[in-house]
Design brief:
about 280 residues, mainly alpha, 13 helices
């Protein structure tokens, strides 16, 4: 049965209305509520909450973890994507499955795995303790579990692009005498740069907002191992609602900035594809 133009117009309007209502109910209203509650007791209370020593420590630790995690996962993501798309070898499908593994495992379970692996009672944990390296209930443990849960993002963005790109241009560059590094900089990187930046943005957003795995391995030590999500939970459980929403609003602002950067990168990526 064919739809008339009027019927299609009605269906389109209904779908758009439903989509906007859904977004308003589950995204815009909660987001606005966070900022309303954050400033409920005035700007003085708000700025006092986000400049308090434990809050500043949580902010610094969250940013530090992201600064460490994203570059390391960028190197891994580029290397994994290059290996999978440019070479044929046995076990390629297994490697792809392993890259997807963090999406299949609950972050809490991942935290428990690393607790068992690096606890002082384990062989590896006791060996590291002998060298004065503490992993669990310290910053290294938070970095490790954050790297685990954010590992797939960059590789997943690069693999389809590099598969579509093929190997012809790289092989031509090599045949003309280009070194491997020069080939990557001059040939490969310009075609994947927007996808790479997109993956880094997603990785950063997940690193900043990670709660489950970090809550297991951090020990939740105020001023030392509390990230922003953990600090928000502690403040909320202590009935310091304005302070909790104040810190949550900072995370929301970071999310909005991330969204704007993500939108810009998507626009540039689509423009580049149209130009090609």
């Amino acid at each position: 049965m064919k739809h008339t133009k009027e019927q299609k117009s009605v269906i389109r309007r209904v779908l758009i209305t439903l989509m906007l209502l859904y977004l308003a109910l589950f995204l815009l209203v909660p987001l606005a509520f966070i900022f309303v509650k954050a400033f409920e007791q005035g700007a003085a209370v708000y700025f006092a909450a986000i400049t308090e020593s434990d809050a500043l420590s949580a902010i610094k630790l969250t940013l530090l973890v992201a600064i460490i995690t994203v570059p390391l996962n960028t190197v891994f993501g580029v290397a994994a994507a290059w290996c999978i798309t440019k070479f044929h070898f046995k076990g390629k499908q297994l490697l792809l499955s392993l890259i997807e593994l963090p999406f299949a495992i609950s972050p809490v379970i991942a935290g428990l795995i690393f607790i068992l692996l690096f606890s002082p009672r384990s062989a590896l944990g006791s060996l590291l303790m002998d060298f004065g390296v503490k992993v669990i209930f310290s910053v290294p443990g938070i970095v490790i579990v954050t790297m685990f849960v954010t590992m797939p993002f960059i590789a997943r963005e690069l693999i389809p692009i590099m598969q579509a790109q093929g190997r012809a241009e790289e092989e031509a560059a090599i045949s003309l005498g280009a070194s491997g590094w020069k080939m990557f900089i001059r040939v490969t990187l310009p075609t994947i740069k927007w996808s790479l930046l997109y993956g880094m943005i997603l990785c950063s957003a997940r690193a900043i907002g990670e709660f489950g795995a970090v809550s297991v391995v951090s020990g939740r030590i105020r001023g030392m191992t509390n990230t922003m999500p953990l600090h928000v939970e502690i403040l909320y459980n202590e009935y310091q609602f304005s302070a909790a929403f104040a810190v949550a609003s900072l995370m929301s602002l970071l999310a909005l900035v991330t969204l704007m950067i993500k939108t810009f990168i998507e626009y540039k990526s689509e423009k580049q594809q149209v130009g090609e």
